[in-house]
């Protein structure tokens, strides 16, 4: 039997494939300034550190800070129109979350996406799934890889951080887990590759959502989910 008693999930690239809606929204902003668009694949390495960082990475290097700030506001408007168009759960995620709920395993979300979008997407795409806590980017909490939100979630779960698994698809998530004193699971269906996850000390790496369940209950990804 595993020692894990709670799980914290990243959102983008872990629970949800948000790439198309984010890419399309940023490209709308870039087009409004006459800047060249980026491919969806290029956005894989830009996502994960919040909206401002995303726009800063996507605009030309010599872009004035005031233009970046204006671009962020334009992005928020564009993303508000687009964020539910193509975003969807990865295959096997809904079944995983239902299975965890049915087993009484507390689950939570910690994202650098703005808190309102994080909550709206979870309600829209995971109706009936119970989350113990949902922390998007919000005032008073530092963004990942700062462990502040992860530790607050563990506290709300009434668990020691060592009893909590942290699941994500990027180095930001792996570093967050380390900073919080939690074991981490790196997922291979997200926005980053296996090398990045292993180079940042992922405790486990899984190819399918089933592996998360197996680790949570048996401490190994090798068993089958029932």
UniProtKB/TrEMBL annotation:
Keyword presence, Repeat: no
A GO term from the CC aspect: cytosol
InterPro entries: HAD-like_hydrolase_sf, HAD-like_sf, HAD-SF_hydro_IA, HAD-SF_hydro_IIIA, HAD_2, HAD_sf, PGP-like_dom2
Species per Swiss-Prot/TrEMBL record: Pelosinus fermentans B4
Protein name: Hydrolase, HAD-superfamily, subfamily IIIA
GO term, biological process aspect, one: DNA repair
Gene3D superfamilies on file: HAD superfamily/HAD-like, Putative phosphatase, domain 2
GO molecular function: phosphoglycolate phosphatase activity
PANTHER family associated with the record: PHOSPHOGLYCOLATE PHOSPHATASE
UniProt entry keywords in alphabetical sequence: Hydrolase
């Amino acid at each position: 039997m595993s020692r894990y008693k709670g799980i914290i999930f990243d959102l983008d690239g872990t629970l949800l494939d948000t790439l198309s809606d984010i890419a399309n929204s940023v490209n709308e902003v870039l087009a409004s300034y006459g800047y060249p668009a980026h491919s969806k694949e290029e956005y894989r390495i830009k996502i994960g550190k919040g909206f401002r960082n995303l726009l800063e990475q996507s605009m030309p290097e010599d872009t004035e800070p005031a233009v970046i700030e204006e671009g962020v506001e334009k992005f928020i408007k564009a993303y508000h129109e687009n964020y539910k168009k193509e975003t969807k759960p990865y295959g096997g995620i809904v079944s995983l979350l239902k299975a965890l709920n049915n087993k009484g395993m507390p689950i939570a979300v910690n994202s650098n996406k703005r808190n309102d979008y994080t909550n709206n997407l979870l309600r829209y795409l995971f109706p009936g799934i119970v989350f113990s806590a949902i922390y998007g980017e919000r005032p008073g909490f530092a963004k990942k890889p700062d462990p502040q939100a992860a530790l607050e979630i563990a506290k709300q779960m009434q668990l020691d951080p060592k009893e909590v698994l942290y699941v994500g698809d990027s180095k930001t998530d792996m570093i967050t887990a380390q900073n919080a004193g939690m074991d981490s699971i790196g997922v291979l269906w997200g926005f980053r590759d296996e090398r990045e996850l292993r180079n940042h000390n992922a405790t486990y790496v899984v190819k399918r959502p089933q592996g998360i369940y197996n680790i949570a209950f048996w401490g190994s990804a090798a068993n089958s989910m029932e």
